[in-house]
Design a protein that fits this description.
By secondary structure, the chain is mainly β. It has one helix and 14 strands. The chain has one helix spanning about 15-20; strands at about 5-10, 30, 60, 65-70, 80-85, 95-100, 105, 115-125, 125-130, 135-140, 145-155, 160-165, 165, 170-175. The strands form three sheets. It has a five-stranded antiparallel beta sheet, with no helix packed on it. Strands 7, 8, 9, 11 and 14 form a five-stranded mixed beta sheet that branches. A four-stranded mixed beta sheet has the order 3-4-12-13, with no helix packed on it. β12 and β13 form a beta hairpin. It is elongated. About 30% of the residues are buried.
Length: about 180
Amino acid sequence: MSNHVSNHFLLIPPSALAKGLGTLTLALVSTVMTLSPSLADMGHSQPSQGSTPAPDSTPVPHGAHGHSRLEIPAGQPVPTITLIAYPDPVRGWNLEIQTTDFRFAPEHVNQANQPNEGHGHLYLNGHYVSRVYGPWLHLPSLPSGRNEIRVTLNSNSHQALTHNGEEIMATVMVEAP
């Protein structure tokens, strides 16, 4: 399978936001099955204690410490992720995280890995923000200007899920006033 990156985004000018959204629905959509591992070299919180990389995993640099990767085994369904960012009518943005062949399992975080389950890692403008435990997330504010929102799919032990050596993630761009 070749690397497939498909980004679809709408930059919303600040003037449109300043006028109010009313009943207008705006959505930013990005589907990214895999992305270059060089983009995965970003800051991140300390790794969980006691997690051990799987034998078929390889280290991934994340700032001053390393995380490992977990390759989806041949014959197992490959997860996909799609992000949609909706302006919240009161304040901020609502991020919808759609996945296939993946289950958010916050009850298993820092436990043994199970096939195609885990959590996400949220990055804003290249900086780690938090874990993601479900399909919806509210971002109360974003810095003014163009912002990159990225979510990676991770195993229960925080390893980045990969397919053909490429991290499974999705990205959307949002223009904030």
